[in-house]
């Protein structure tokens, strides 16, 4: 048994790729199923209108223009 990935044979590389692919698909499927099954956390868009212009400074002095 060789413990180096560089000198591993073709079947070992194939096994690693297959395991990584299956794990990735399982993780993506789990994420999609968790995301679509929760209807309690629906997002809504709100429109925020701009108000008066505000200038932020580091002093408390007011400027009259």
Order of helices and strands: H
Sum up the overall morphology in one term. Answer: elongated
- How much of the sequence is in beta strands? under 5%
Major sheet description? none
- Our measurement of the CA-to-CA distance between the termini, rounded to an integer number of angstroms, reads 82 Å
Output mean pLDDT.
80
Give me the number of helical elements: 1
Rg estimate, integer Å = 28 Å
Helix residue percentage: 40-55%
Count of DSSP strands: 0
What structural class should be given to the helix and strand makeup? mainly alpha
Low confidence ranges: none
Describe the structure in brief:
The protein is mainly α and 65 residues long. The chain has one helix at residues 10-37.
Summarize the structure in words:
The protein has about 60 residues and is mainly alpha-helical. About 45% of the residues lie in helices and about 0% in strands. It is elongated.
